[in-house]
Design goal:
α4 runs antiparallel to α5. The chain has helices at about 15-20, 30-35, 40-50, 60-100, 110-135, 140-150, 160-175, 200-215, 240-250, 260-270, 275-295, 300-330, 335-370; strands at about 25, 215-220, 230, 235-240, 255-260. The longest helix is centred in the N-terminal third of the chain and has 41 residues, at about 60-100. It is mainly α. The two termini are about 35 Å apart.
Amino acid sequence: MKATFPGWYAKTPEDLKALWERAIFVPDTNILLHLIRHSASIRIQLTAVFERKKDALWIPYQVGAEFQHRRLDVQQHALDAYDRLAEELKASVNQARNKLNQYRAHPVIDIERELSALDVYLSDFEKRMAADRLKHPTDELAASFNRVTELFEGRVGAKPTEERLTAIRKEGEERYAKKIPPGFEDAKKGPDAGDKFGDLIIWKEMIEKAKAEKRPIIFVTDDGKSDWWHSHHGKKFGPHPYLVEEFLAATNQEFHIYELPQFLRYSAETGSAIQAEAVQKIAETMIADTQAASAKSADTERAVAIKALRGELRGKEFELDGLLRSLIDFPPKTSEAGTRDDAKRSLKVRIGELTEVVSTLRDRLSALESEPMDGARG
């Protein structure tokens, strides 16, 4: 049965080890953007992981084009943050001031004292943002962009012809109507949100690369939508079965997919020196991006709730994964056995609590996703 339905079976550790030794590693657009958006420490560590895989790296032309179009927006977003955060906090403080003024007749609360405290807090925050703005690492970020450029020099796919793109988009209309992955969740993308067929173009480029090189592909992405993943009750089991089987039929090669934190953890196990704190920071950034996209979405209220749940579930799964690894790697017994055992028991209790939270979130997400949706998903 496994030979007939290969996409429905998880890869064993032995399968993954063999795959890592042969595969071409393909980072998605957002993965490249992570290389230029974080603090210096994380950028350096993350770039080092990919440099270690340099000989096996490759990106489709579509990924490179999306990166070039979006990287200035990412850098400007970081530069604008100082003023934007100060303005948003000022608006929030003004709202708080208005609320406090409604309680001037309160018998206990010293309204003037609290208003003064708000003013001091806002003033201090504005000073910190102004000072941080002066330290903005413009030159360092430019150097990070140059390192990405060098890293993928000669490792970018050829630009598809207009005829090829037209054919892919025509096929995409039929695939999306039938909910055939990848990319069908982008079907309702507006013109300002980029090419709705971008994922499908990337997919077709990866197929052509695997055929030409006769090698499997490992795709690294932070796209958590169901048109890339095999999910059940909110839990991801691996790439969408249809993708595995289409890729195998077209190339006679394997296809696998990782979210960035999982890819980094596996890289660390195979020799890449990346700190757990860096992995967690990147995971938090991915969660924040998911939640921000939900807040800006023009979809139905239920669609927004689904996106928010996905972000929350992703965060809890990352945390649970880290705790389980901590338990596996727990230090051996020492002379302070009592302290060690207490710490281990506490870790197990937290794992149990978090497991229940993850299970509840998966059930809630499954229930929401099983209902008919009025608007678009993205």
